[in-house]
Structure formats: structure tokens, C-alpha cells
Amino acid sequence: MSSLRHKILRDLRNPLFRQGYALMANTVITATLGMGYWLLATHLYTPEEFGRGQAVITAMRLFASLTALGLVGALARFIPIAGRRTPELILRGYGVAAATGGVAAVGFLLTLPLWGKTYSVLGGFGPGLFFLASVLVWAVFTLQDVVLTGLRRATWVPLNNLIFGLVKMGLLIALAGALPEGGIFVSWMVPTAIALIPVNWLIFGVMVPRHVKNNTSEAEPPRLREIGRFLAGDFPGTLSILAIVYLVPVVVATQVGEATFGRFSMAHTLASMIELLAMNMAVSLTVEGSFDRSQLAVNCRQALRRAFMIIVPIITVSILAAPLILRIFGSEFAEEGTTLLRLMSLAVLPRVLIEVYLSALRAQSQARKLAVVQIGLAVLVLVASMALFPSQGVNAVGYGLLLAETLVAILIFSELRKILKFGETGQPSVTQGSPEAA
Fold first, then answer.
1. pLDDT, tens digit, for every residue of 143-153?
2. Looking at the 3D structure of the chain, how many domains does it have?
């Protein structure tokens, strides 16, 4: 026990692990509170209201993330070295993400009849305006976590989302009788909007000034042209990955009934939380690789070890206990979601390799390779999922993810091995006998 405690304390002194563990802890907290939230929703709302709430939240996150998720890699890459331009970089990211998401949301609302009966609840000026405002709020909320991580303050992320999750659950209960039609969506968004105020006060009032003061590097902060070149490669790729995360569920929502989508979405959400664990350590890897590229190879090896050490047991439990986990929400959830949860959980194994590889490319500003890998992955997932949907139904999403991510992991494996062995110059990134955490 003392050996384990010593190892954990040693890891926490390493910014790579400290940030990665904080983001992983945040995912666990979010998943636990999320299960509690949706469990309450299944008891407080009808299956149709439950499915409708899931569908509207998914659409909102799709539009809010159009640019926000595309900027995650850039902010993780450049905030560590932005120096005096850090506030400008963060605000530009917020503005671009909110503006792009807002335009997409307006287009969605203007074409609402084309999106099926599920989204008809957003018809009318009031619901439409609330949906638009929610997209703007969620775009900024999405970027807060990566801003804190880029400032090496990811330990604040779990606390923020713990409070957010608890308030969200309380509001869900309060609105169950008063607002059954939109209670789920409103209870999700109101705490999000409130959370923006203290978190951004902390970022701009405390953390950014300290970051600028402590950034003593004589190197010139990155210019917009350099960031633009990076985004030219990373953004199209990230946008294509967005299609996997949010567009696929939205398409599924247009093809199945509200109750069926609610059961699909629950399994999809739980599996996505496991996938987030793979991404957490990868984001930390991008940040630390930006601070010190000479340690990229050793950091990649450490990130892979820790990620697999944590994720493999979780995947094993998810596969074995999938029916029991989903049965908490009802027998119908277990009947319709078990196979999907198992397939998506298994797909996280190759995803770990892909995410570490992508983060190493971001740290090296290898924009072209980033685009090729991410776009290729998205195309494979979409084609496989849509091709299998007529015969496999919602399980086609799981089969598509597993097949596509396994194939891409095989294709990038030789390049990943080179990164793990060598530094940026093609020489070993650590000298013989240098210490490396086990």
C-alpha cells in the first residue's frame, strides 16, 4: 500500500500525469453524475420526453462543437507558449466557437421541419431562442476545460463539473412537474450558463496573469499565421471526428422513434465516457509536448502505459457487466443497448493508440498528418455505420467504430512506434540511462 501511495505521489509531481489524472477524474465524476442524472430522468419523465431531451441535447452539442472541438487541439498546443498573447488567444477561441455554432444553429432552426418529429419541440420563437443561446453557452463551456488544461490548471476541471452535475440533477427534479416537455434540456443548460461566470473570472482574473508572468521564455509568442497553419490541418480533421461523436447520433434520431433513441443514446453516452478517458491523457500529452518537445517520446510512452493501465479494467467491466449496468435504467435499455455498449467499449482499445499518436502530431504541429488520419477515421466510421444500419440497426454504430478504429490503429502503428522510440530530430529523445517513470 505504501508503495502504491508513493507511486501516486510521484506521478502527481509530473505535470503530464497530474493533468491527465485530473481530466480522467473529471470524466469519472461526469459519468457517475451523468448516470444519476439520466436515471432520475427515466423515472421523472416519460420515455418519449426522455428520448426527446436526449435528442435536443445531442443536436445542441453538435452545433456548439462545430468549431469548439476543432479549437481544442489548437488551444492545448498554443496556450502553453502564448505568453502575453494568452488572453487574446482564449477570447478569439471563445468568439469563433460561439459565432460558428450560432450560425449553424440558426440554419438548423430555419430548416426544422426537415429534421423530423423529434425536434418539433424547438418550433416557435421562445424555444428556438433558448436553443440558440444554449449553443453559444455550450461552445464556451466546451473550451473552458482545455483552457484550464493549457494553463496547467486541469485540477480545477473536476471541481467545476462536480458542482455543475449536482446543480443539474437538482434542477431536473424541480422541473419534472412544472416543465415536462423541456425540463431535461432546461435543467442541462441553466447550470451551464451559471458556471461560465466564476470559471472565467478565475481564468482571466487569476490564472492567465500568473501564466503570463511565469512564461519567461524569450521565444516570440505564436502569431496568428502560425496558429492558422496549424488549424488548416487540425480543424478539418477534428470536424470530421465531430461527425462520429455528434452527427451519427443526430442521424440515428431522425431514423428511429423517440423512445428507441433514448435507449440507444444511454448506451452511446456511457461508452463515449470511456472513450473520453483515452482522450484525457492525450490532451495532457499535447500540452506537455508543447512545453518541452525534447521529452515527447518519453511522455508518449508514459501516457500509453498509464492510459492502458486505467482503461483496460474499465473496458473489461463494461463488457462483462453491460446488461447489469444498463438494467439500472430499465430492462428495455439492457435489451436494446447491451451489444452497442460492448462494441463501443471494445473500440476504445485501438482509440488509445490513435489519440496518443494524434496528440504527438499536434505537439509537433504535423497538421497534414492530423487531417489525413482524422478524416480517414471519420469516413470509415460513417461508411461502415451507414452500410450496416439496415441490417444491424443502432448496433451498426458500434460495429462501425470498432472496425474503423481497429483498422486505423493498425495503419498508424509503425509511425507511432517511431515516435515512441525517437525524438523530433530522429535521435533518441532521452539519453541512455535517464530515468523514466514505470
1. 888 888 778 77
2. 1
